[in-house]
Amino acid sequence: MKLAIFTIDALNLYNKITPAMRSGELHTWTVIDRDNGGICYNYTPKLWSEKVLLVPEIGTDNLLISTRHWRGGYVPNEDMKAFVLSKFVEVLLGHFRDSFDTFRFEK
User: pLDDT tens digits for 26-47?
Assistant: First the structure.
């Protein structure tokens, strides 16, 4: 499951979201640094933490957020993925609504 966030400056949106998570400004989100140099966004309430990870990818006209999980670990179902993505949408609308045009969920 994916969330495509359409914007004229995906890098700028990424550079707003990621530091806000790292600094603790977004209290229920953290950034996990991956071994491959990438990052994951993690929704931190105990029930959800590290079960559905969100991986940001910067595109030419969008920031694509894909759901992932730890290899060999808990495998989330589609309802759990949808829930965590919806929490991410709350962050977008509450904190970054002026930084994107529209968004679309993809299966």
Answer: 999 999 999 888 999 999 999 9
Return d(Cα 51, Cα 69) in angstroms, integer: 6
Cβ neighbors of 6 (< 8 A, separation 6 or more) are 61, 62, 100, 101, 102, 103, 104
* Type of residue at 40: C
Rounded to whole angstroms, how far apart are CA atoms 6 and 102?
A: 5
CB atoms within 10 A of CB 84: 22
Residue extents of the structural domains in the chain: 2-106
Determine contact, residues 42/29, Cβ cutoff 8 Å: yes
